Amino acid sequence: VTAAAGAAKPKTVANWMINDLLSALGSASLELSEALVTPTSLAELAALIEKGTISGRQGKEVFVEMMASGKAPAAIVQEKGMQQVSDAGALELGLADAYELEAAARGAERRHLVAQRVAETLLRERHLEPAARWFERALRYRPDGPEVVAGLARALGSLGQGRRALELHMRAVGLAKKSAPGCVSPRSRLVLELARALVAYADDRPAAVAHVRSIPALLPESFEARLLEGRWRSELGDLPGASEAFARLGDEAERALGALTDGPDPRIALASDDGVASARRDLASELASYLEEAARIEELDRGNRLAAQRLLGLAIRLAPRRNSIQTAFRRVASEAAARGKSLPSDGLVELASPQNAIVSSSVPPPSHRPLQEPLLEPLPGPLPLDYEPVDDELLVEKLADKLRGDPTDSQVVLALADALQRLGRDHELLALLSARIEEEGEPLRSRLMLRRRAVLERMREQALVEGRVGEVDLYELLLNRD
User: Fold this and answer.
1) Is the pTM of this model over 0.90?
2) Taking CA 279 as the corner, what is the angle to CA 274 and CA 285, rounded to the nearest 5 degrees?
3) pLDDT, tens digit, for every residue of 13-53?
4) HSE-up of residue 129 (Cα within 13 Å, Cβ side)
5) CB atoms within 10 A of CB 235
6) SS3 sequence, 360-391?
7) 345-359 burial, b if ≥16 CB within 10 A, otherwise e?
8) What band does 225 get if pLDDT is binned at 50, 70 and 90?
9) Pick from 394, 398, 397: which is nearest to 384 by CA?
10) Phi, psi angles (nearest 5°) of residue 110
11) Average pLDDT over the chain, rounded to an integer
């Protein structure tokens, strides 16, 4: 209220508090005192929009990041390069120079690179319409460039052309698979963008879950992929699946700790130039934020304080001076101890003061893990389709690994779907079917759509029986779309 009274437009700040902050807190079951966003920071955000530094749509993006990390709005705008340039004369002059550079370049490949660099610069500076035009110019010289296709998708998405942006994100992933089949990290980044687009533009969380789950472990993109999988599974009502994703996030964070805090680790794809220390710090800070959000979901949505305690302990080791993580860890550990379910004393983090280093591991020994550690490494050797293991759990792991090796194998897709159905793992089955429907041709696509509809009807009936009205509405929406 004080911040709103001192702002240039107090009504704007009040609207942010009522329509955005209180709504977000209600969705997360948090009190106002627990929010990482303060009225003062909301006033700063409103001022950035009023000055024209960022647009109103960008303000929404900044607010989401503020809720997740507690960072100041100006810092987020700077990190993401969101500043709008309003000098039309400077823009026209810059574009004239760009046309001259393009004309001077010899050959289609060189002109493609010039157009791509111009487009990326325009997009960074939030000149969205000219950025889209220059991405299209770049594609005239080389239509199969996945990075350019993805750049055009980002520009069009920001312009409100969500459906076309989604189609381009799908095309970018397909082109990346063909042009560089052995190059995992860039393709994983494009897959992550596609997953976000599926949620933003099509509200298709099952398909998005399938895509992020395909991203291999211990890449910079894999940490966010595990968080998004858990977040989207939680929003779908698949709380056990969300906990499994968060457990994998914790396992990967534990394995990455050495690279991010002590020294390089060849398993982590970090920068190797002079900025490696800065890259480590940035990735450690991001990973700590992912772990903090995962812990919040485990605590509030599932009531799993042991899992939340483990995730927060890992987050503290990555960001030992972040007060919000320390406060959450103390609260969760205290509540778990009061119920007699705290982690053993040798697995807790000592927090004598903010200046002290972390002196003991926050990760419980394997026997105290809230979930069985998932299989992260591929199983050796091919799997015959007539192989019948002792149980379907093992079959699912093997078939999923085989499908990652050859995503075009339709027989493996059907065998995996059968195994998931026998196990009653409908959320995973729905994610698998949704992802494959986009990629398969006829007649298999029609067959998969029928199976997807049957799964949705089964999940709707189960939610109806258990009185989960919100899920019933979601499944009916998906059924109507099919």
Assistant:
1) no
2) 155
3) 666 766 677 667 666 666 666 778 877 888 888 888 777 67
4) 1
5) 17
6) CCCCCCHHHCCCCCCCCCCCCCCCCCCCCCCC
7) eebbbebeeeeeeee
8) very high
9) 398
10) -65, -40
11) 75
